TrEMBL record:
Residues spanning the membrane: 21-41, 154-173, 180-201, 207-228, 240-258, 264-283, 346-368, 380-404, 411-431, 437-456, 468-488, 494-514
Protein name, entry field: Solute carrier family 22 member 3
Species lineage: Eukaryota, Metazoa, Echinodermata, Eleutherozoa, Echinozoa
InterPro entries per UniProt: MFS_dom, MFS_sugar_transport-like, MFS_trans_sf
Stretches for region Disordered: 541-566
């Protein structure tokens, strides 16, 4: 008897599962706080060169703010932008070396010197919006302004590494042990990062933190899917990832209440302590994993506990000894799957195209999420809206994809996301730009959700699990590249969004090479998957694929992890 049949006997979506799903969602929510923490920890603000650092203006009856304003007016050049707006230079100042401050005040309006020099005494920062950031603490401005983005890319690289390492560890040592280990190590490293003495110490600690925290989120997802029946896995996944969207609002609220980045880092890490205890006492080891490890006795104990909490009565001879193991993809089978992809030109080109599509969507999604503070409105409000817009995007895409099909939905959402990104560069800062950018986020989130299902329906059964794993790992390149692309803002403020828009539009047109899969059987073999590609017309109908051999009516129970969920 297979595991899913046994799970039905104890209840595949009862009180036990619902309680555990509610609990497993909280680590995902806390993970979002760490994932996007740097949006506020590295919030950008105006800055200018420091001059006459020891002058306090007490003799001329000025407050500290009035004094700093006067110093800037005397010593900082004014520049005129392409939009004909004036602003103070951020990285240069007039050469006031050796000039007395009171003397400089006396010749105000005539400039002390027309010669400019780089900042040689540090910088003064406008702390009205972001009082304490890594930019202020580590002076990451001017020639070092790109470093916060590099730090974010390195953090995402840690997530990619951690997903790979802890994915293997969870299969060897178990989901529960791996998750508990990740809690302990990830929490300690996150706490340590609050006392970073310099930028590179901060980067290294954040990188290591991300490696271990990825083990928490990954195993929450796996446990959520392995504790429920096949028909409930999509629902379970959506329940878990609903916490992801809620995390945007929680982080924005905390960042507003706690403007100091070190304290904020501490606060978003503290919940891991009670979550560690709750996981230890209330989250069991995956009974599916125990069966695969031939630990039927331990699996039976967990299943009896599930039955008791679900108020299910078990038959007297209930046991797990005859429960069949799942098919395990070891290195040999993965190599065979890879060779099967290489041999089929159609599947190979489809995988390359789909991988590009997933990477592009990850770039656009994270690029828009990380740049909410540069839209010209309150960054806390824009960040909340950026997360809240995902909820209607996920909800609507379910119906739109079933109504219009995968191809049309993905094509139009990617094109509309690309147009919105390009238009962002044309509208003025403030509410108009924020509205257009958030519309882009809405459409790319919709396409994100549809393309996962589409990939599952395009791949044959023999390649479905390994193929989705390859696509998921490849897509993680996107979050690493997104912060790097945002560095181009320093060259031309509109360049990143134009790149996001162009990539999205290209991906939209490339998806037209995929066949429509709405209403068709899942292919079992490579030959059947190739048969899907015989008709790639834009308006191809939902006729079922004619099966020559094999049983394609059995849908895969594998639920792919969203490429953006790191």
């Amino acid at each position: 008897m297979d595991f899913d049949s046994v799970l039905k006997e104890v209840g595949d979506f009862g009180r036990f599962q619902k309680r555990r799903l509610a609990l497993l969602g909280f680590p995902v929510l806390i993970g979002v706080l760490h994932l996007f923490l740097q949006v506020f920890a590295a919030g950008k603000s105006d800055h200018w060169c420091q001059s006459w650092q020891n002058e306090e203006c007490g003799a001329i009856n000025l407050t500290r703010l009035q004094c700093e304003s006067l110093k800037r007016e005397i010593s900082i050049p004014v520049t005129v932008s392409e939009e004909n707006t004036t602003s103070f230079e951020q990285c240069e100042k007039f050469n006031v070396t050796g000039v007395d401050f009171e003397t400089a005040i006396g010749i105000l309006g005539e400039n002390v010197s027309q010669k400019t020099i780089p900042c040689d005494e540090g910088w003064v920062h406008d702390q009205s919006m972001f009082p304490s950031t890594i930019i202020i603490d580590f002076q990451l401005v001017c020639s070092k302004s790109y470093l916060p983005n590099i730090a974010q890319s390195i953090y995402f690289a840690g997530k990619m590494l951690g997903t790979f390492v802890f994915g293997i560890a969870a299969d060897i040592f178990g989901r529960r042990k791996t998750q508990l280990f990740s809690y302990v190590c990830g929490s300690l490293l996150a706490f340590a990062s609050t006392v970073s003495l310099n930028f590179w110490m901060y980067v290294v600690l954040r990188f290591l933190t991300s490696v271990f925290l990825s083990g928490i989120g990954l195993n929450c997802f796996v446990l959520a899917n392995e504790l429920v029946g096949p028909s409930r896995r999509v629902l379970a996944s959506n329940m878990i990832w609903l916490y992801f969207s809620v995390g945007y609002g929680v982080l924005s609220g905390l960042a507003k209440l706690i403007p100091n980045w070190r304290i904020l880092q501490l606060v978003v890490t503290l919940p891991y302590i009670p979550l560690l205890a709750l996981t230890y006492f209330f989250i069991p080891e995956s009974p599916r994993w125990l069966v695969n490890q031939e630990r039927s006795g331990d699996a039976e104990k967990v299943m009896r506990k599930i039955a008791k909490e679900n108020e299910m009565t078990l038959r007297e001879d209930f046991n797990m000894k005859n429960c069949t193991k799942d098919e395990i993809h070891n290195s040999s089978t993965l190599k065979q799957d890879f060779l099967e992809v290489i041999r089929s030109r159609v599947i190979l080109l489809m995988m390359i195209n789909m991988a590009f599509n997933w990477v592009v969507q990850a770039i656009v999604y994270y690029g828009l999420s990380l740049s909410t503070s540069s839209l010209g409105i309150d960054p806390y409000i824009s960040f909340v809206i950026s997360g809240a817009i995902e909820i209607p995007a996920y909800s609507s895409c379910i119906f739109v994809a079933e109504w219009f099909g995968r191809k049309r939905t993905t094509f139009f959402t990617l094109i509309l996301a690309g147009i919105a990104c390009c238009c962002t560069s044309l509208v003025p800062y403030g509410i108009p730009r924020a509205v257009v950018a958030i519309l882009g986020k809405f459409f790319v989130t919709m396409s994100f959700s549809v393309v996962i299902t589409w990939a599952l329906e395009l791949l044959p059964t023999s390649l479905r699990t390994s193929g989705l794993s390859i696509l998921s790992m490849t897509s993680r390149i996107g979050p690493i590249l997104a912060p790097v692309i945002l560095i181009l803002e320093d060259t031309w403020s509109s360049l990143p969004v134009l790149l996001f828009g162009s990539l999205s539009i290209i991906a939209g047109f490339l998806c037209l090479f995929f066949p429509e899969t709405k209403g068709k059987f899942l292919p079992s073999t490579v030959r059947e998957a190739e048969g899907l590609h015989r008709n790639v017309a834009f308006d191809a109908g939902p006729e079922e694929l004619q099966i020559d051999d094999g049983d394609c009516s059995k849908e895969s129970s594998q639920v792919p992890e969203s490429p953006k969920r790191l």
